[in-house]
Amino acid sequence: MTIRNYHLRTLALTVLMIVTAHAPATSSAQESSSRERPNVVVILADDVGVEAFRAYGGEHDTPNIDRLVREGVTFDHAFSTPLCSPSRTRLMTGKENASNYEAFGYLGAEERTFGNLFSDAGYATGIVGKWQLSGNGFDGRTGISPTQAGFGQSLLWQLEPGPQKGSRYWGPTLWRDGGWLIPEEGFGPDYLSDYALSFLDEHADRPFFLYYPMVLVHDPFVATPAERVGGNEQHNFGLLMQYMDRMVGRLLDRLDTLGLTDDTLVVFTADNGTNRRIYSVRNGERIRGGKGLPTLTGTHVPLMMRWPGQIPVGERRSGLVDFVDVLPTIADAASLAVAADVDGVSQLAVAQGRSPSARETIFQHYAPVWRWPSTRFVFDLERKLYEDGRFVALDLSLGEERELDRQSLTDDDRARLARFQAILDADTVPLDPERYPWCAGLEPSVEGGDPLVVGCGTAPGNRAD
């Protein structure tokens, strides 16, 4: 495929999407500089921790994401879970995983997401990017659909589980409103970005909620249309970072063009730490990605919010933010009530500078049922307690954890340890020990063991994580 053909195909798809949508309402949007209810856009990057971002002392230049830093508020201490599916469940429902996480790549059809919340409030709702909630293809579960989750429009990768999920990058396998869209050429993130822009065009004259869980920068680490000749994985990770930033810039520019910037709350974050094969330089130190691990490098993620006139510009916040807080925060911005079983707290007052913090601790019940062992832990800005008894000091600037000697604790640390232990003890939901759902019915790698727990000496084809 030539570069010319690639650009022609991308242009053709863009024109098709725009023509089949309603005409943009640029003029009416510009005439209404302050809507009664804001638009909301939540952008979720895939597999990248804070150490990769210039805004957090990292090495990669991301000028469009830095625009969100300049024009909004940056949260220095936001935390996801260590892995994508638990994080997405937590983000979309506002609930701690102990209450509703059952399996990797799965969310029950009975769950209510922020898509349902905004759809029920009369918002136009759309999702574009990675789904990964319909099931993992190994345990027989069939999970929630985008429509059941409240999204009226969708263009998605990994709507279906297993090998049929196909490529996210070159020659992508996509589903548009539940139907196959399998272009033989082109770059997946471009198709997804074009669809996101067409959604903004179509709904410029009414309140909308757009959830944009990007496929970038997850492996495979491929070259991009911007630099068709790639290099090793480390080099190509940098290319994907640049391309992710470019996609964010396209969306911000379209909001500007439509006159919607002042009426739109934009949230940018990421689902978990960076791939462990990737190293980044942060604050002068070389840091290895921690995806899958319950450490700082597995869970410390970027978070920026921009809402002109409602959120200060160029400011930073040091309070803790949990992924369960995103749903109640955007609901608060739109004056929507959340269900009583939501575990998160609104961070809107923190973002606006009316409160220094909204929570003192973060608790995680981490049982991904996918490769990594289960654990539970609780932490604040200085200390963390793991279920196995490790009590560690945290260096958030470098993502390092140092175990403390319990015999030498200060009085403050002893009091903190007691509080943390009480939080751990309050979680009575057993941790699921299963790690290898693809090993069902196969010979265990350890004689006499359960292959779902000890493995079977194989890895899933076309891995989904």
Question: What does this entry look like structurally?
Answer:
About 30% of the residues lie in helices and about 20% in strands. It is an alpha/beta fold. The strands form three sheets. Strands 1, 2, 3, 4, 5, 6, 7, 8, 11, 12 and 13 form an eleven-stranded mixed sheet that branches. A five-stranded antiparallel sheet has the order 14-15-16-17-18. A hairpin with a 3-residue loop joins strand 15 and strand 16 (about 385). Helix 1 packs parallel to helix 7. The longest helix is centred in the middle third of the chain and has 25 residues, at about 235-255. The protein is globular, with a radius of gyration of 22 Å. The two termini are about 30 Å apart.
Shape: globular
Average pLDDT over all residues: 91
Fraction of helical residues: 25-40%
- Please report the total strand number as a whole number: 18
Short description:
This protein is an alpha/beta fold. The chain has helices at residues 3-20, 26-31, 63-71, 84-93, 97-100, 114-120, 188-202, 233-257, 296-299, 326-333, 348-351, 411-426, 451-454, and strands spanning 39-45, 73-79, 124-130, 153-157, 174-176, 179-181, 208-213, 264-270, 279-282, 285-288, 300-301, 303-306, 315-322, 362-366, 375-379, 383-386, 391-395, 400-403.
Give the SSE map:
Layout (H helix, E strand, L loop, with lengths): L2 H18 L5 H6 L7 E7 L17 H9 L1 E7 L4 H10 L3 H4 L13 H7 L3 E7 L22 E5 L16 E3 L2 E3 L6 H15 L5 E6 L19 H25 L6 E7 L8 E4 L2 E4 L7 H4 E2 L1 E4 L8 E8 L3 H8 L14 H4 L10 E5 L8 E5 L3 E4 L4 E5 L4 E4 L7 H16 L24 H4 L11
